[in-house]
């Protein structure tokens, strides 16, 4: 394939190939969509034991202020409605970058490291996010991208027991806690978070030590590698949005049912980009809402499947859809006109011209098991 | 058992008396991954060679299955509805999709044989 010649490699490219990873292009990188076990087995293993994902394609950066994390937090609030100033040292939070029109520019994780903020953004948006953030920073606050760091996600109910002997400090973290630690003698920055709905860690490590760390984690009891395919089915079962699919510059936080990512203080001050649209939609209700969808029977409905009311009126579109291995059935999410957004509402998904009966369903499809 | 013939879309065909049995190859099931659903054609439907007439869905994606030759659908493998994993486990056996009554049985012989298909898969790698 000619396109593979121009694809970027993560620091774990050689390891993926040695493990039999099937490499596919994703956001400009060659990434493993699965290993020989297959998506179904990798997904189920993550829910029952522990899975290791390479997410080094994601963008990592630090924001440094003249007076530490405090002015960095105030600066980041210029581009997000999240309450960053209330984020305590050692804690991480989910946030949205906004367009001036009230659309979602990207979503991110931000951690307060005491003397600085640590950011993780989407691979497909990092080349846009970093200039957007940089342009909003006042003198004395700087954004420092960290392209020389890898990111690993270790996810599943078996993770804590597996990692505790190596790094007791990490096992003591609660959900969304962040700490520097050493794993097998390798310095890391780890947060108790993930994209699967399971307990686990996201671990930032220097690129040159990423392979040694990955091998040490894969050697732990019960840990198996998992690819992007399982990552996608796990996050959809967990009801989590994928940027570019479920949220983008046209969707607002209110439409996307991500209003919880807007800080209470920010909702009184309305001092973030796109606040006008958000305020109007919170007051009057959005025209459409992101909802979970549960098709009847076994047939999945994929992204871009049209959604219609029982009388045939078009009311929306599926944005993510597939088969949930743990759910043992099809699942989807998408946007529907607000009158049809109530849990249990009957509607139809137009799959290859045939109307497939479905219902609006609460998410997550599979309960979260975070370490609160 | 009569030999299999193959298409560039990774279906196989096996003559079975007056009918032609159709399925997808081991290479195809391996590329698709775990099959979770199949949409089979209606019995009695007339199909042209190369016409999309079934859909196979894996965890990852949906893919069309094409009629390798022209004919009329005479039977579908209803066992796949209950156990679509048969396609992964026995792609050229119990995991067959449907049977056609060929319009022109000579069309089967014109498809790739085992060696030609192996070379084709090799050339696509």
TrEMBL record, chain A:
<dbReference type="GO" id="GO:0008483">
    <property type="term" value="F:transaminase activity"/>
</dbReference>
<keyword id="KW-0808">Transferase</keyword>
<dbReference type="GO" id="GO:0004047">
    <property type="term" value="F:aminomethyltransferase activity"/>
</dbReference>
<protein>
    <recommendedName>
        <fullName>aminomethyltransferase</fullName>
        <ecNumber>2.1.2.10</ecNumber>
    </recommendedName>
</protein>
<dbReference type="InterPro" id="IPR006223">
    <property type="entry name" value="GcvT"/>
</dbReference>
<feature type="domain" description="Aminomethyltransferase C-terminal">
    <location>
        <begin position="290"/>
        <end position="366"/>
    </location>
</feature>
<dbReference type="InterPro" id="IPR029043">
    <property type="entry name" value="GcvT/YgfZ_C"/>
</dbReference>
<comment type="similarity">
    <text>Belongs to the GcvT family.</text>
</comment>
<dbReference type="InterPro" id="IPR006222">
    <property type="entry name" value="GCVT_N"/>
</dbReference>
<dbReference type="InterPro" id="IPR013977">
    <property type="entry name" value="GcvT_C"/>
</dbReference>
<dbReference type="GO" id="GO:0006546">
    <property type="term" value="P:glycine catabolic process"/>
</dbReference>
<keyword id="KW-0032">Aminotransferase</keyword>
<dbReference type="GO" id="GO:0005960">
    <property type="term" value="C:glycine cleavage complex"/>
</dbReference>
<feature type="domain" description="GCVT N-terminal">
    <location>
        <begin position="15"/>
        <end position="264"/>
    </location>
</feature>
<dbReference type="Pfam" id="PF08669">
    <property type="entry name" value="GCV_T_C"/>
</dbReference>
<dbReference type="InterPro" id="IPR027266">
    <property type="entry name" value="TrmE/GcvT-like"/>
</dbReference>
<dbReference type="Pfam" id="PF01571">
    <property type="entry name" value="GCV_T"/>
</dbReference>
<feature type="binding site">
    <location>
        <position position="202"/>
    </location>
    <ligand>
        <name>substrate</name>
    </ligand>
</feature>
<dbReference type="InterPro" id="IPR028896">
    <property type="entry name" value="GcvT/YgfZ/DmdA"/>
</dbReference>
TrEMBL record, chain B:
<dbReference type="InterPro" id="IPR017453">
    <property type="entry name" value="GCV_H_sub"/>
</dbReference>
<dbReference type="InterPro" id="IPR011053">
    <property type="entry name" value="Single_hybrid_motif"/>
</dbReference>
<comment type="similarity">
    <text>Belongs to the GcvH family.</text>
</comment>
<dbReference type="InterPro" id="IPR000089">
    <property type="entry name" value="Biotin_lipoyl"/>
</dbReference>
<keyword id="KW-0450">Lipoyl</keyword>
<comment type="function">
    <text>The glycine cleavage system catalyzes the degradation of glycine. The H protein shuttles the methylamine group of glycine from the P protein to the T protein.</text>
</comment>
<dbReference type="GO" id="GO:0005960">
    <property type="term" value="C:glycine cleavage complex"/>
</dbReference>
<dbReference type="GO" id="GO:0009249">
    <property type="term" value="P:protein lipoylation"/>
</dbReference>
<dbReference type="Pfam" id="PF01597">
    <property type="entry name" value="GCV_H"/>
</dbReference>
<protein>
    <recommendedName>
        <fullName>Glycine cleavage system H protein</fullName>
    </recommendedName>
</protein>
<dbReference type="GO" id="GO:0019464">
    <property type="term" value="P:glycine decarboxylation via glycine cleavage system"/>
</dbReference>
<comment type="subunit">
    <text>The glycine cleavage system is composed of four proteins: P, T, L and H.</text>
</comment>
<dbReference type="InterPro" id="IPR002930">
    <property type="entry name" value="GCV_H"/>
</dbReference>
<feature type="domain" description="Lipoyl-binding">
    <location>
        <begin position="19"/>
        <end position="101"/>
    </location>
</feature>
<dbReference type="GO" id="GO:0005829">
    <property type="term" value="C:cytosol"/>
</dbReference>
<dbReference type="InterPro" id="IPR003016">
    <property type="entry name" value="2-oxoA_DH_lipoyl-BS"/>
</dbReference>
<feature type="modified residue" description="N6-lipoyllysine">
    <location>
        <position position="60"/>
    </location>
</feature>
<dbReference type="InterPro" id="IPR033753">
    <property type="entry name" value="GCV_H/Fam206"/>
</dbReference>
């Amino acid at each position: 394939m000619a396109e593979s010649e121009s694809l970027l490699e993560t620091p774990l490219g050689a390891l993926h190939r040695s493990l039999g990873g099937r490499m596919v292009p994703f956001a400009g990188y060659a990434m493993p969509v699965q290993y020989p076990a297959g998506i179904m087995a990798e997904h189920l293993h993550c829910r029952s034991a522990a899975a290791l994902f390479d997410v080094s394609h994601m963008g990592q950066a630090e924001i440094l202020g003249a007076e530490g994390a405090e002015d960095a937090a105030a600066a980041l609030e210029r581009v997000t409605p999240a309450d960053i100033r209330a984020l305590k040292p050692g804690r991480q939070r989910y946030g949205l970058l906004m367009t001036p029109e009230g659309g979602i520019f990207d979503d991110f994780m931000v951690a307060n490291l005491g003397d600085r903020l640590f950011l993780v953004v989407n691979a497909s948006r990092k080349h846009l996010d970093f200039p957007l953030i940089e342009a909003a920073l006042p003198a004395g606050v700087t954004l420092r991208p960290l392209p020389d760091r890898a990111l690993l996600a270790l996810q599943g109910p078996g993770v804590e027991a597996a990692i505790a002997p190596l790094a007791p400090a990490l096992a003591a973290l609660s959900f969304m806690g962040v700490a520097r630690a050493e794993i097998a003698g390798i310095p890391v920055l780890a947060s108790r978070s993930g994209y699967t709905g399971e307990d686990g860690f996201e671990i930032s490590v220097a690129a040159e030590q990423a392979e040694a760390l990955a091998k040490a984690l894969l050697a732990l009891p019960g840990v198996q590698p998992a690819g992007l395919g399982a990552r996608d089915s796990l996050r959809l079962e967990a009801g989590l949005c994928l940027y570019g699919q479920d949220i983008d510059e046209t969707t607002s936080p209110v439409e996307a049912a991500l209003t919880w990512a807007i800080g209470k203080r920010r909702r009184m001050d309305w001092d973030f980009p796109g606040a006008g649209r958000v305020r109007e939609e919170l007051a009057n209700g959005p025209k459409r809402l992101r909802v979970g969808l549960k098709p009847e029977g076994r047939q999945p409905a994929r992204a871009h499947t049209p959604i219609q009311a029982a009388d045939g009126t078009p009311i929306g579109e599926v944005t993510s859809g597939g088969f949930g291995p743990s759910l043992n059935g099809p699942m989807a999410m998408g946007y529907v006109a607000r009158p049809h957004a109530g849990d249990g509402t009957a509607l139809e998904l137009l799959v290859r011209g045939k109307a497939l009966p479905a219902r609006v369903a609460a998410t997550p499809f599979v309960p979260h098991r975070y370490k609160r | 058992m009569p030999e299999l013939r193959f298409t560039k879309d990774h279906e196989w065909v096996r003559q079975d008396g007056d009918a032609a049995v159709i399925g997808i190859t081991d290479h195809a099931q391996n590329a698709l991954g775990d099959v979770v659903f199949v949409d089979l054609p209606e019995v009695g439907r007339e199909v042209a060679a190369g016409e999309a007439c079934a859909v196979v869905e894996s965890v990852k994606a949906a893919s069309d299955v094409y009629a390798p030759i022209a004919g009329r659908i005479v039977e579908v493998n209803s066992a796949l509805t209950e156990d679509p994993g048969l396609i992964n486990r026995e792609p050229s056996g119990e995991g067959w999709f449907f049977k056609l009554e060929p319009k022109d049985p000579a069309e089967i012989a014109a498809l790739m044989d085992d060696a030609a298909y192996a070379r084709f898969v090799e050339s696509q790698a």
